[in-house]
Amino acid sequence: MLDVKFNIRQVARTLSLVENRRPESHAILRAAYKAGRHVPVIGVTGPPGAGKSTLLDRLALHWAEQGEQVAVIAIDPSSPYTGGAVLGDRFRMDRASAHPRVFVRSLSSRGHVGGLSRAVQDVVVVMAAQGFERILVETVGSGQADVEVATLADCVIVVSVPGLGDQIQAGKAGILEIGDVYAVNKSDLPGAGTFAAFLEANLDLIYPGRPGVNQGGQRAGQERAYANAVLHRRHGNAGTDESFWRPPVVSVCALQGDSTEALCRVVEGFLSWQRATGRDGSRRAERFQDHIRRLASGRLLAQPLPAGAGPSLPQLADAVAQGEMTPWEAAEIFLDALSEAWLRREGTVADPVARSAED
Amino acid sequence: MLDVKFNIRQVARTLSLVENRRPESHAILRAAYKAGRHVPVIGVTGPPGAGKSTLLDRLALHWAEQGEQVAVIAIDPSSPYTGGAVLGDRFRMDRASAHPRVFVRSLSSRGHVGGLSRAVQDVVVVMAAQGFERILVETVGSGQADVEVATLADCVIVVSVPGLGDQIQAGKAGILEIGDVYAVNKSDLPGAGTFAAFLEANLDLIYPGRPGVNQGGQRAGQERAYANAVLHRRHGNAGTDESFWRPPVVSVCALQGDSTEALCRVVEGFLSWQRATGRDGSRRAERFQDHIRRLASGRLLAQPLPAGAGPSLPQLADAVAQGEMTPWEAAEIFLDALSEAWLRREGTVADPVARSAED
């Protein structure tokens, strides 16, 4: 563990070095990874307007009041945290972030095309090494970012609200398959009960095999199989003898704080179940595998090609645009050159600060 | 050009083969890429609730009524098109999609982690080869998906609406840097004029160098530089003699159809400017380069490793989780093995149907 524990200015400075890939970040990252410290990472996702920030505030406060050192990472571009970040005021204070045991950090999603989850993974590991005991990650609810947060977190809370047609659609279209826990926020709004029941019914379609429940035959085969494989790996298979987790739907009102404590207990329940079944380790292993694959891919694509190593990427792209070559033929030629160059590279010191093609 | 032109059932079937990577898709994709036909691709993005689908409907109808064959690709998980797709009814009809010259296709964003833009790129090329004359792509407004749509489209329309705090934040946090044209929808709502002025003022910060305008010094240096580089490449640099494009803000009311024709003319104006400055070709080249890079990366990561080629990815991930190795050390070992295996692979026939690691 680094010795900067809870000197907030020092923590902020360390994270800036890591985020900006300063030379000093090499040693910081190395020490953090070697510390091998794992703390619960809770992802909070959902559409803009679902009240994620307010809910996050409640959750962070809850755990802080239990005595934990809590870190919040905001990567949702519509978040007041992140929105503030872009305009220059990196920290916007509200209840939780004013608590001495809560530290809020915003990360911009730009400048990280394809590499955002890698940046978040690094920040999570550095925060854990610095002694934070729980890390909350807020992200926007849209296809790819959702999948990424699901990969990064030990528990994903999907937040939705009643009464917004688009958001019901969003629920249908994907986020029902990444949550470990579902929160219906603004439960004082009309239609909240109906909406929660709607979520439950949709979860029944996705978690077939629950006694007396429809087998979800409506869904297209390929998507069905994909979803099932992911869910069985995460939550077990109700059709077998093994212990399984059927994500609960919790109605809360974050603004008033109604039932947010109950939500925290459900999250703790999920984390306990996950630990008891050994799935915490496999989920973490999945996360590190993804991270290594992304790093490998980024490093390869950033490999400089020596002159005469064949056509350059712009030349290949031009050939594709002219219809002279298909993209996968171009990719093979490109990959041949990259692989050769990689194996013949000079120097073997792995440098985490080297900018990769994904940055 | 393929001979399936505007036999809608045949078009739909062809696209299904491509999307599902059926064996037949090899020949279809090859023929489509070799056709080398380029038609304008218009991306429409913005937060859920901004009325993207309604606006898209108007735009598609406009061009269809001008006699064009228009294709619409919906990849926004909150879209009624895509929402419908996931529940099984792939086509939800409304005004535009009922027009004989408009064809709507929804693409799920799941099952394509990291590979969605590749899938869309393939579909766009196949649609162009089939004779469609304009392709509209609808996506949700969130960081990464936005950047992807910007890469795929020849013109990006960013749609927003007045009165939603979150969406103002979303505007601040990134989408102001990917649009070629900005549409303020629901311009009959109170505050619409103020909101449009707010957008204009923010664009003034982002497009410095316009006479009499703030240089945008508030923004963090790294993000500023990143944004400037991308914008100068796309829109030229106001600080120099070259012709440049300052994205206009167009107020529309898609539901009533107010000013949607004007929006179409602005889009045409942008496309003309882009052609006249040769930027259409460089934008397309950028797109194909990204595509080749993604394919190369996916193929490499999918390369099977022979037994004895060193530690496996799960073993490397475990070593990282235990703190025995940093992820970038693991990535180097993994990449050595992958590159060796790639160069020694058997068979050289490029197969676009082969599943890559990004699927």
From TrEMBL, chains A, B:
GO molecular function, one term: GTP binding
Assigned keywords, A-Z: Chaperone, GTP-binding, Hydrolase, Nucleotide-binding
Stored InterPro entries: GTPase/Isobutyryl-CoA_mutase, GTPase_ArgK, P-loop_NTPase
Keyword match Cell cycle: no
Signal peptide segment: none
Domain of life: Bacteria
Pfam families: MeaB (PF03308)
Classification via PANTHER family: LAO_AO TRANSPORT SYSTEM ATPASE, LYSINE/ARGININE/ORNITHINE TRANSPORT SYSTEM KINASE
Record NCBIfam families: lao
Family of the protein in this entry: Belongs to the SIMIBI class G3E GTPase family. ArgK/MeaB subfamily.
The name this protein goes by in its record: Methylmalonyl Co-A mutase-associated GTPase MeaB
Encoding gene (name): meaB
